[in-house]
Design brief:
heterotrimer, A mainly alpha (about 400), B alpha+beta (about 250), C mainly alpha (about 150), A: about 400 residues, mainly alpha, Formate dehydrogenase/DMSO reductase fold, two-stranded antiparallel sheet, 3 strands, globular, C: about 150 residues
Chain lengths: ~400, ~250, ~150
């Protein structure tokens, strides 16, 4: 295998349109932050029943995808698959960028974002949220170090492997922490399940790789550098395994809940009678984000075409948003059962499914997080030697040439 | 507190000498209008001198049978006392206390009762709060320290009773004893400003004034208190007993 | 040597100059109603933020109500009363808190949650050191009017 040559991305005229587009989203997000800051959360669709809304769906997606985006680097340095190594730098950079985008959304949605310093200096260690603050900041440090040892001249390979192992374990801890934000909410029937942690890890594998596939394709297209069909095919099959894993954990989650009579109501709500949430679960998560991508990456006729795999990655992302919307919003919309055995009514929406319709402000803030992540990735690739000159199949693995030319 | 000794807050509390310090401002709240006629502005009652007592546990007992379904005196009293109000946005307006109507699905029995912060011994809101803004005082009153609340709303996710509200809009005209502001979470304080001066929560007082007398306030740790004697003599429950939060609010005849 | 002396003199001259200028350019703080702080105004001016921060935790977290530095007490004593006998919020321009904080360009968020006016207008009037007869009469008249409203 030839030595990989990394080269900065040249900001050519091709960057103008995507750059302006991303800039527009960032400006829209700034407008959204000003609105929420000035008028309060009244300008969002959130209320005292659904306290976490669309910004949290975006933030959690980005945070979960961040740890998943690191997979490619982990496969290269922890599991020793040399063919993945040329993409490892982009994998680490994208992980940092996605986490930054997600955290920006999360922080800017706080009631008092001006008190970020309080969150960074006062900790209650019984709170998984407080642990997560350490997990997130630590992730920046660990993955930053990982990127450094990968890029530093004359760094011995063993250090890449060692730091890579730390980064891999850290990302597992981070996603466990993110899942446990919901898993440890004992009061709400939609959460309160240990399976949330492994489910979120599976989701991170899946969403992260899907985002990686698309961002890699976008950057290489902008740079005019080739990406081999064989590589996309391989990553696509890996994505298929992760998608199946998410479906498996989702099935176990709901089957377990269905078995307990006390959870029958919330399961009926999500699986059958929840309106938008039921539609998003079956149509969004299971069909668009699960079954269709599986067909696209495993059916021989489809899998041979890189476009099909990239489409599958896009569908996984759409399905991921649907899944998080169901987890975050439906879990809150379903009424708390403070009085088992009673029909409940009050002025505070006890006993009824809570209403939530996201506002433009929330959408702009969430999309701004994505724009920020893409900006950081692109800037990183422009100033640092992140992207290999080519990812053609012959450059990655000479033995794969025959297979990929057949496939193409 | 001795003014120069800023670094040792907890130790100074029991020091007697600090009370002998000339207190500026606050000490002068008592004004002589005429011989024998004084006006008490604020502070000054003997109970105010003591900090929250770890030997006490403040709680409520609500007799559901005596709570009239068409009565919301407790809610109005709380709103008046603490300065929150339903202002046309029921989804986003704060509600520290609310009347909940219940109908037993099997027997059809209908009851009505007030629900507010249950002041749990093991409050989930305190566990999940990342900054420690959600806190439980030594005497069992669960509060939000709005100085360190960042408005993340995780406590609202964790509370099994929907006892907390988030302030969605800028506010004006707050009560001096109940500061509230945009972007923070709040809930029933058990009228801590009254309790610290030896008083009773506004809801309990208002309930007594209606003649229903459905609410009793007192020290659950004091076996001689009315609330403890009633709890010892008659059956009562707390909400979501399965969660073992040991709320300070008890309901009888539910 | 002479150069050194000259520069020292120059520095002293500058310090004296700025100190002198400070007296004239500082904000004019409205007078409080109560007696002066025994620790002196300079002490409170320099330390009020630490004292308030320290004591707010005593009250908020420990339930200690008898504290030296309570925002409520500051507001009660330092708020000015308008010609209509209604107190003026201390965070209004030119009032006790705002006058210095605007001068020093230090933004405070105390009054996003805390009220910037004392509780009862009538109490405030009586807190004055020397309420004159006209004020007392006006106050008692006001009490009567309030009584008829009820």
């Amino acid at each position: 295998m030839a030595k990989t040559v990394y080269q900065e991305l040249k900001p050519t005229a091709r960057f103008w349109i995507p750059g302006l587009l991303i800039g527009a989203f960032l400006i829209a997000a700034a407008w959204a932050v000003y609105q929420a800051e000035h008028y309060g959360h009244i300008v969002t669709g959130m209320n005292n029943q659904v306290v976490w809304g669309l910004p949290h769906v975006f933030a959690i997606f980005l945070i979960v995808a961040a740890s998943g985006a690191l997979n490619v680097a982990s496969i290269a340095s922890v599991f020793g698959r040399a063919a993945y190594k040329p993409m490892a730098r982009l994998s680490a950079l994208l992980a940092i960028a996605l986490l930054a985008g997600g955290l920006a959304v999360l922080v800017l949605d706080l009631g008092r974002p001006d008190r970020l310093i309080v969150a960074m200096t006062k900790y209650n260690f019984r709170s998984i949220f407080a642990w997560n603050i350490y997990l997130y900041t630590g992730f920046f440090a660990v993955v930053g170090a990982y990127l450094f040892v990968q890029m530093a001249r004359g760094m011995h390979e063993k250090w890449v492997r060692r730091v890579g192992i730390v980064a891999f374990l850290w990302r597992l801890a981070l996603t466990t922490g993110t899942g446990s934000i919901f898993g440890w909410l004992v009061a709400r029937p939609g959460y309160d399940a240990a399976i949330m942690a492994p489910l979120f890890i599976a989701m991170s594998f899946s969403f992260g790789l899907a985002v990686f596939l698309l961002v890699q394709q976008l950057l290489f297209a902008l740079a005019g550098r080739p990406v081999g069909a064989g590589l996309i095919h391989r990553l696509g099959r890996l994505l298929g395994i992760f998608v199946a894993l998410v479906l498996y954990f989702t099935a176990i989650q709901h089957l377990t809940a269905l078995y307990a009579a006390e959870h029958a109501d919330i399961e009926r709500f999500i699986l059958r009678e929840g309106g938008i949430y039921t539609a998003l679960f079956w149509g969004g998560q299971v069909l668009i984000g699960g079954l269709l991508p599986l067909v696209l990456v495993f059916h021989p006729a489809a899998a041979a075409r890189p476009a099909a795999t990239l489409l599958a990655a896009g569908l996984v992302i759409i399905g991921g948003f649907a899944q998080l919307y169901v987890i975050v919003i439906a879990g809150q919309a379903f009424p708390l059962e403070s009085f088992p055995g009673y029909e409940v009514s009050s002025s505070f929406f006890d006993g009824v499914v809570a209403h939530y319709s996201p506002s433009l402000v929330e959408l702009a803030l969430g999309l701004g997080g994505i724009a920020l992540a893409l900006t950081i990735t692109a800037l990183g690739a422009i100033v640092l030697r992140i992207l290999p000159q080519e990812l053609s199949d012959s450059a990655l693995d000479p033995t794969a040439t025959a297979a990929s030319s057949n496939a193409a | 507190m001795k003014l120069p000794a800023l670094k040792t807050p907890a130790k100074d509390i029991t020091e007697i000498s600090r009370r002998e310090l000339l207190r500026s401002g606050a000490a002068l709240a008592t004004v002589a209008l005429a011989p024998g006629v004084t006006l008490m502005a604020f502070g000054g009652t003997p109970a105010a001198a003591a900090p929250a007592d770890p030997g006490r546990r403040w709680g409520l007992l609500i007799d559901v049978n005596r709570c009239a379904s068409d009565c919301d005196a407790c809610v109005r009293a709380c709103s008046e006392e603490n300065g929150w109000k339903l202002d046309g946005n029921p989804e986003t307006d704060a509600q520290w206390i609310r009347k909940v109507d219940l109908k037993d699905r099997e027997t059809g029995r209908e009851v009505s009762l007030p629900v507010m912060c249950q002041h749990c011994e093991n409050p989930p809101c305190v566990d999940v709060c990342p900054t420690g803004a959600s806190m439980k005082r030594a005497d069992g009153i669960v509060l939000v320290d709005k100085h360190v609340c960042i408005g993340c709303r995780y406590c609202m996710m964790a509370c099994p009773f929907k006892a907390r509200s988030f302030i969605h809009e800028p506010l004006e005209g707050q009560k001096s004893h109940a500061p509230r502001g945009k972007g923070t979470v709040e809930s029933c304080t058990l009228c801590v400003h009254r309790v610290d001066e030896g008083g009773t929560p506004a809801c309990v007082e208002a309930c007594g004034r209606t003649g229903n007398g459905a609410m009793i306030f007192g020290d659950l740790n004091d076996p001689e208190s009315e609330i403890s004697r009633r709890l010892a003599d008659y059956p009562s429950i707390t909400l979501r007993e399965d969660m073992r939060l040991n709320p300070g609010v008890h309901y009888s005849n539910l | 040597m002479t150069r050194l002396l000259a520069s020292i003199l120059l520095v002293f001259g500058l310090i004296a100059g700025t100190a002198h200028a400070g007296e004239n350019l500082g904000p004019e703080v409205p007078e409080a109603l109560g007696p002066p702080h025994p620790e002196g105004n300079a002490y409170w001016r320099a330390n009020h933020m630490k004292l308030l921060l320290h004591d707010r935790d005593l009250t908020m977290r420990l339930g200690e109500r008898e504290i030296e530095a309570s925002l409520k007490a500051c507001v009660t004593c330092h708020a000015q009363t308008g010609p209509d006998a209604v107190p003026i919020p201390v965070n209004e321009s030119g009032q006790f808190c705002a006058v210095c904080h605007e001068f020093a360009a230090v933004r405070i968020d105390c009054f996003q949650c805390h009220t910037a006016s004392p509780d009862v207008a009538s109490v405030r009037l009586l807190l004055r050191k020397y309420p004159d007869e006209a004020e007392l009469v006006a106050f008692l008249e006001g009490m009567k009017l309030e009584g008829t409203d009820e």
